Amino acid sequence: MSHTLPRTPCSIVPPHLLMRLAARQDARFAVAADAARRALRELDPLRQAREESLRAPVRRPSAVVGTLTRRIHDAGGREVLPGALVRGEGGAATGDPSADEAYDGLGSTYRLFSEEYGRSSIDGAGMDLAATVHYGTAYDNAFWDGERMVFGDGDGEIFGRFTASLTVIGHELTHGVTQYSTNLEYQGQSGALNESLSDVFGVLVEQRALGQDAAAASWLVGAGLFTAAVQGVALRSLAAPGTAYDDDVLGRDPQPATMADYVETASDNGGVHINSGIPNHAFYLAATALGGRAWEGAGRIWYDAVLGGSIPTDCDFPTFAAATTAAAGARFGATGREAGAVADAWSAVGVLP
Amino acid sequence: MRIEITRSGGVGGMTRTWSLEVSRAEAEERWLPLAEAEAGPGKGMQDAGPPDPARDRFTYRITVGYTEVSVPESRLGEPWRELIERAREAGRARPAPGPGEGSGPTTAAGDGTPEELL
């Protein structure tokens, strides 16, 4: 196994990456850590600020110390946003499971991006995290409206309340991260990648909160949302796309795991929630091949790719596969097992960069 | 006249279909003009202006006879909501479909007096 520093000028490496590298105690990373410490000494604040202002704001990784500011609103069963404020940052628990699950879930999601990836909130600049619960009557959905997460109570027949799944909360918030980073178009393959990033970081939020390594995790999105009447365990499975449910009313989980089963459809913005199964499964294969904590290995690589600047808004699967493979090489070494695992994962799902 | 409503999208990405029968008079007075207005210039998906930043919202495809329109949830007005609620209610009033009928209840419901099937 070999680990080499990316051969790039120090000024291009974001300060938070340098800080993480500099803090490494592992002997295998001694050279990298020394180089990062030198680079940090050379970075004067003025130069740092200038570089940040030159970068597109949407791509900017955070060098700002993050503060978590959550605001939970209650729509009271109406389809009106934002609704009444029921819990602000540091406020006491409300006793309403939806409001308190949303509050806790926003915190878990914030901490993944902040503590692992150095990103301050969804925009990288400390934006408040807002959620509305009890949206609509018997409303069977959770969505991102461009500014906030919105959660329905479910109809009680198929779905219960949507805040019950931490992966769904992480999924919705990651739509915000994507909006402020790659801004992937919500159509076809770029839309499926947008969806997949939300699923990937949604499951990583839960895995990190539960302290689960890749082998122990369920790799399910939306487990626990269905009522007992539904034949199914979750909305989607990254481990086995197409197997999350098979129900009389809902039909069968339509997700493909490989390009051989790619679904061409006009509905769902060209199947953004369907073909996301392919990049989802590639992530699962890479993460389980690497083992350990998925948010530190494959998750870090995917996040590096998101911020790396090589993902256009109309990105297709092969371009994304190339970006993640390159990101694995840049962080862990081009001949390291990480880059190999990522390349193998894309190959296994039939996506060739 | 048969009206079919297919909802796609949502965080679950599950497609649901509901349908109901309405009288030809009701379809011509209420639903066909609405569908034609929705399909007309300035209202279609291709004329949507700046991209909508919303994610995981529903899209409804509503078919009235031979006229089909696609309406994003964010533009769903009160008449359509009433129609969707009636179709869902009609679905609930019917017995559950047997195994293998994957896309949900789609059989016609006794909602209004059907004068003619299209």
Mean pLDDT of chain A: 88
| CATH A-level architecture of the largest domain in chain A | Orthogonal Bundle
Largest interface: A-B, 36 and 29 residues
- Large-scale geometry of chain A: globular
Concise overview:
Chain A is built from eleven helices and nine strands. Chain A has 353 residues and is α/β, with parallel strands linked by helices.
Please tell me about this protein's structure.
The complex is a heterodimer of chains A (353) and B (118). By secondary structure, chain A is of the alpha/beta class. Chain A folds into three domains: 10-56, no CATH class; 64-164, Elastase, domain 1 (Roll), CATH 3.10.170.10; 185-353, Neutral Protease Domain 2 (Neutral Protease, domain 2, Orthogonal Bundle), CATH 1.10.390.10. Chain A has eleven helices and nine strands. Chain A has helices at residues 15-22, 30-42, 45-54, 97-117, 166-179, 188-210, 267-271, 277-290, 298-307, 317-332, 337-348, and strands at 70-74, 84-88, 129-133, 142-144, 149-151, 220-221, 236-237, 246-247, 251-252. In chain A, the strands form three sheets. In chain A, strands 2-1-3-5-4 form a five-stranded mixed beta sheet, covered by helices on one side. A two-stranded antiparallel sheet of chain A has the order 6-7. The two termini of chain A are 24 Å apart. In chain A, 51% of the residues are buried. Chain B has 118 residues and is an alpha+beta fold. Chain B has one domain. Chain B contains two helices and four strands. Chain B has a four-stranded antiparallel beta sheet, with helices on one face. Chain B is globular. The termini of chain B are close together. The model of chain B is unreliable at 97-118 (pLDDT under 50). The chains are: A alpha/beta (353), B alpha+beta (118). Chain A binds chain B through residues 140-147, 159, 162, 168, 171-172, 175, 179, 185-186, 194-195, 198, 222, 225, 235-236, 248-252, 254, 267-269, 272-274, and chain B through 6, 8-16, 51-59, 61, 96-99, 101-105.
